[in-house]
């Protein structure tokens, strides 16, 4: 495995890890690691360091929805044009081209179901290329970006009384 890929896997698992810890794990010098990380940041391979938050533990959490969109492509307009336009909305957390019955999948965040519904109705459904939408509200997130958020609860067995 090359050094850059090794560093990326380490950082993806723990973005707060120190350069010296990465150097120890890879058997390289701090300077080599620092130079490689700077190059990966500079060329856009590393886009952002991310924190995963369990919003269910916060009183004023967010509502998430997955929006599936069917697109009617116009002449000279591809999926990239539609995806670029949609990705500019601050409510949109992710945009993906997908296979199946729909063309594009969005993850959207809002303060309430009503806010998300209005966002879809007023900003997404009104785009000329959008033929139809299907909105699925996220009721509970069990795992996010590889991190388990809710441990399974172990039910205690009650004693049998005869």
Please name the defining characteristics of this protein.
alpha+beta; Alpha-Beta Plaits; Arc Repressor Mutant, subunit A; 162 residues; four-stranded antiparallel beta sheet
Compact overview of the structure:
This protein is of the alpha+beta class and 162 residues long. The chain has helices at residues 3-13, 19-26, 30-42, 79-87, 113-124, and strands spanning 63-71, 92-97, 104-110, 130-137, 143-144, 147-148.
The tally of domains stands at 2
Share in β-strands: 15-25%
Structural class: alpha+beta
Shape field: flat
Series of secondary-structure elements, N-terminal to C-terminal: HHHEHEEHEEE
Number of helices in the DSSP assignment: 5
CATH homology group of the largest domain: Lrp/AsnC effector binding domain/regulation of amino acid metabolism (RAM) domain
The CATH topology of the largest domain corresponds to Alpha-Beta Plaits
What is the name of the CATH class of the largest domain? Alpha Beta
Instruction: Indicate the percent of residues in helices.
Output: 25-40%
Strand order of the main beta sheet, please?
2-3-1-4
What is the average per-residue confidence, as pLDDT, rounded to a whole number? 91
Taking Cα atoms only, what radius of gyration do you get, to the nearest Å?
22 Å
């Amino acid at each position: 495995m090359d050094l850059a890929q090794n560093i990326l896997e380490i950082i993806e698992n723990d973005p707060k890890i120190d350069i010296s810890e990465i150097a120890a794990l890879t058997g390289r010098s701090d300077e080599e690691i620092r130079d490689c990380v700077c190059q990966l940041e500079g060329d856009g391979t590393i886009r952002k360091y991310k924190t995963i938050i369990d919003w269910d533990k916060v009183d004023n959490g967010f509502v998430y929805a997955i929006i599936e969109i069917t697109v009617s492509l116009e002449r000279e307009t591809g999926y990239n044009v539609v995806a670029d336009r949609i990705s500019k909305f601050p409510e949109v957390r992710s945009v993906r081209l997908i296979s199946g019955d729909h063309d594009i999948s969005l993850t959207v965040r809002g303060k309430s179901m009503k806010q998300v519904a209005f966002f879809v109705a007023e900003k997404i459904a009104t785009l000329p290329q959008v033929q139809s939408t299907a909105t699925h509200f996220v009721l509970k997130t069990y795992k996010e970006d590889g991190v388990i958020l809710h441990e399974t609860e172990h039910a205690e067995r009650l004693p049998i009384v005869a």
